[in-house]
Amino acid sequence: MTTLLxxxxxxxxxxxxxxxxRAMARAFQDVFGFSNGLGSISMAGRTDAWIVSQMAAEHxxxxxxxxxxxxxxxxxxxxxxxxxxxxxQKGILPGVxxxxxxxxxxxxAYLALLTGNFRRGAEIKLEYFDLWRYxxxxxxxxxxxxxxxxxxxxxDKVEAEGGPRMRPADVVIIGDTPLDIAVAVAGGARxxxxxxxxxxxxxxxx
Length: 206
Description:
Blueprint: E1 3-7, E2 14-16, H1 19-32, H2 48-58, H3 65-82, E3 90-92, H4 96-104, E4 109-114, H5 119-128, E5 138-139, H6 150-160, E6 171-175, H7 178-187, E7 190-193, H8 201-205
Parallel strand pairs: 1-4, 1-6, 4-5, 6-7
Antiparallel strand pairs: 2-3
């Protein structure tokens, strides 16, 4: 039996040293003219589409498909530059590459992504660390504002790419936030919480 392993990215596989947050802030300034767009909004476990909509709402700014597209394009451009900058705590998290090398050698494991990152943002981050090649497909922040909806997107994407048609019971979602685990709970999948991000083991267990 094949198990579908759906990986989160930030805090689970790698740390960009804040490149994503800096790119978000710069893109928000480009599109909306605010230098501190993130304010008190937490990015952990959220989709990029949700984050930008909340940034606009917090500042009382009009937000539509056109402004979203401008934000997306600006963010991708800034991320491509920010990811190259040196930063503390930047890198692949311990054991990740060894784990992925082991998993791809097993025929009963199918690796894909379930992440709040825009697809192009995910690609930029993973390609920088030479991790993109491990994943065949995935569900991304472009696909849904609601992270819980990404499980079904991922199942459809896997099948569309020639992979097996999976049931939620055959899926393990791997992530570092309670919201990653909540996706599994909502969809009937299993979860594996990793305390390599901002949340302790006790919080993830709860």
